[in-house]
């Protein structure tokens, strides 16, 4: 039976066993290349992280270059392993060239995400640790990888966004600037003393040490609403103090407006009944 197979394949005696042995050896070497190469990709990417950390590089750049280095090494490992199996590089390149259009169309989104990652690192609309609003999602920038940007929300949820959509969409960076303006809208009831309310709010602003004096804070009537007189307050703070100042002012208004004879109204409607008799 074996002689018939050898004859059919045009091989000499014992060549089948030799061919199987040669292929098995090549396969073992290729598997070894895969294992060692993928392990090496992990080691090198960690080394890149250590080197860039020592140089105090941008954390966004560190995560991007680390993932890019790992991807490049893995691609080279795959090509080397395929070559070891006996596939000539010229034939391999020809196959890739023939399939290039189909692969390009299939992975157009992936290539767009890679280009988006490069644009993010180049133009720096945000960096590691910034608090941003992107694609309708809010959170702190945790990682910028070659294909994705990862956000972490204040309640510790992880949001993974495609870099292509991020780079081509609207980005709101809340922490890019050192200072931010805090806006409040407070309502008092009709009949309350507007002058007292404004003076009290200015007192709160003056006593809040985290509010910046320049630019000067603004207090004014924003609207005469259906159920309240709305007062707008605008003040500038350091970005890191934004939420602390916002919540502190709200709490103080709630606690002290009542003692000054001011009322925080709730929506109401007057109904008039007519007697047609």
Describe the structure.
By secondary structure, the chain is α+β, with helices and mostly antiparallel strands. It folds into 3 domains: 105 residues, Helix Hairpins, CATH 1.10.287.1260; 51 residues, Roll (SH3 type barrels), CATH 2.30.30.60; 82 residues, Alpha-Beta Plaits, CATH 3.30.70.100. It contains 8 helices and 9 strands. A 5-stranded antiparallel beta sheet has the order 4-3-2-1-5. Strands 6, 7, 8 and 9 form a 4-stranded antiparallel beta sheet that branches. A hairpin with a 3-residue loop joins strand 2 and strand 3. The radius of gyration is 33 Å and the shape is elongated. The model has no long low-confidence stretch (mean pLDDT 83).
Largest sheet: spatial strand order: 4-3-2-1-5
Give the class-level CATH name of the largest domain. Mainly Alpha
Q: Report the CATH architecture of the largest domain.
A: Orthogonal Bundle
Give the amount of beta strand, in percent.
Answer: 15-25%
Taking the alpha carbons of the first and last residues, their distance comes to 116 Å
Please tell me the total number of domains: 3
Order of helices and strands: HHHHHEEEEHEEHEEEH
- What spatial form do the alpha-carbon principal axes imply? elongated
**Overall pLDDT score:** 83
The percent of residues in helical segments reads 40-55%
- Rg over C-alpha atoms, rounded to the nearest angstrom: 33 Å
Which structural class do you get from the secondary structure elements? Answer: alpha+beta
Uncertain spans, ≥5 residues at pLDDT below 50?
Answer: none
Give the number of DSSP strands.
9
